[in-house]
Amino acid sequence: MASYKLVTYAGADGPRAGLVIGDEVCDAATLTGRAGDQSVLGILQDWTAGRERLGNGAGSPVAGQPLATTKLLTPILWPSAIYCAGANYADHAAEMARASGRSPEPDPHTLGLKPWHFLKAGRSTLAAPDDTVQITGLSKTMDWEIELAAVIGLAAKNVPLAAALDYVAGYTIANDLSARDMGRRPNVPDKAPFKFDWVAHKNFDGSCPLGPWIVPSRDIPDPQQLGLKLWVNDVIKQDSNTSQMIFTLAEQIAHLSSRITLQPGDVILTGTPAGVGAARPEFLKPGDVVKLWIENIGTLTNRMA
Fold first, then answer.
1. CATH fold label, 82-304
2. pTM
């Protein structure tokens, strides 16, 4: 089967699913002849058959439009949920412990702990490749976090660890933007169980840049062996590898699916490595350009305003 990347692009009559083949974007529904393939979510709802159709269609001599002049949108319009792994790289957990004056914690596996996730809203938080993200007035300590994002392709409930990756349609790049100074509610005691505000901290318009496309899972056989880097204004801030995750993606899928049914199109952000602004301390300001790269996937860029 021919290789391709799955995108949502701005068509003449609205968003359309497309395949990036070489330096062109080809309309997915035109390639497959199936009306349901006009949206990425529609394709994912029928992923078992859809991946075969797309793979076969990608080898067809159908003319596309230049990628360089095509506006790419958020790859999925819209996921029902975005699950975000917290404290899932050992180096990041250690740097955050140092920043808050705490001793490093042991590997959660040794304590019998499971992966830990919070949620981002499935629509309003998303920002497309090259979108400008408005941060003025939201936070004085806006932080960056590069994350490998896995896109679910099959409904998953009580998935065994050994089969967990079979439920992944593909992979993309996410920036888990974080309003650090909004994470704790004012006028609430520090030790109160109601001190933390995850909505303000992690959920605001544009807080989850995602893209530029979805690379099918068949083209990334091991998601735990991918280099990842983040730059702010061409200065590298994060430089690591997904092998540094505490809980693997398979462990995350198995655990999440024991609690709730993961749906096609749902996105799992798998955690961020060391190098975040909070540990420096250094934070984003209007005009900053943030570029993220993950091996075998590509580059995602956004400007802050």
1. Fumarylacetoacetate hydrolase; domain 2 (3.90.850)
2. 0.96
